[in-house]
Specification:
The chain is mainly beta. About 10% of the residues lie in helices and about 40% in strands. A hairpin with a 5-residue loop joins β2 and β3.
């Protein structure tokens, strides 16, 4: 599974259940196998990032800009602010506000719920008992991408490098007075990943994903802030309480796998 491109959380960025969608799974197809060419400096920087994000409990905020196509095929931009709370291995909360209203994702270890204030509706999906397991099961049900998902896994550096074929450090830049490594990675088919890591704490400060194979070369931009590793969320923080009048949307059941043919049987 490539979490960068096929993860459940994108429902919060896509305009909600039944709303407009960013570029789909089919448009950002699976990466082809290739021998990675990643410089030692870039690899070491990502290893430090993975170590910095190993905390069982943490939260952060992200200001995101992503491109979507309107019915005429013209590229437009949508802005969101996300507050993400993680408690590994099986709790996740995402509060979202943006141009298309507010919403949230709540994962309690057994069920993931996506709620959209616009329309006052939500969907609920039973999922496995880990964040990665939740994403793997739920991604096919909502079918859109979430480029920040790599940072929520148990091994963020390994998840980020999944499918990547090349990577290097570009230079050191200042972001709000903080020195940051600017890294550039490539992933087929023609996806560029730019990541800025705080040189002191190795925490992500900025991410830009550019889809060069798609019309207009749209991109996704995220700026991170307010990293907090001193939080102690309780189970109650990951319980969804439907607002008054909220409507639960019934999703189609997952497609059943075709039965396996017996050895030697005819087609």
């Amino acid at each position: 599974m490539k979490l960068r491109h096929v993860a459940i959380l994108a429902a919060l960025l896509a305009g909600g259940l039944g709303g407009r969608s960013p570029f789909s799974i089919a448009e950002a197809s699976a990466a082809t196998a290739a021998k990675p060419s990643i410089t030692p400096e870039a690899s070491a920087a990502l290893t430090r990032m993975g170590q910095a994000l190993q905390s069982k409990e943490f939260s952060f905020q992200a200001r995101t800009i992503r491109v979507y196509a309107d019915p005429a095929g013209q590229l437009l931009h949508i802005f969101h602010t996300l507050k993400v709370t993680v408690r590994r291995p099986d709790r996740l909360l995402v509060d979202r506000t943006g141009d298309d209203g507010s919403g949230k994702l709540v994962y309690d270890g057994k069920t993931v719920i996506v709620y959209m204030a616009s329309g006052n509706k939500y969907a609920s999906i039973p999922v496995p008992g880990t964040i990665a397991g939740m994403m793997k099961v739920a991604m096919g049900r909502l079918g859109v991408d979430f480029p920040l998902a790599d940072f929520l896994t148990d091994a963020p550096n390994q998840a980020f490098l999944s499918g990547v074929t090349a990577g290097r450090v570009v230079n050191t830049v200042m972001i709000d007075g903080v020195p940051c490594l600017h890294l550039l990675f490539s992933q087929p088919p023609q996806i560029d990943l730019e990541l800025w890591l705080d040189k002191n704490q190795s925490l992500p400060q900025r991410l830009i994903v550019t889809y060069r194979s798609l019309p207009g070369q749209p991109d996704f931009v995220a700026e991170f802030s307010n990293w907090n590793f001193a939080i102690h969320p309780t189970d109650a923080d990951f319980v969804f309480q439907p607002p008054a009048g909220a409507v639960k949307i019934a999703l189609k059941p997952p497609a059943a796998a075709a039965p396996a043919k017996a050895t030697g049987s005819k087609p």
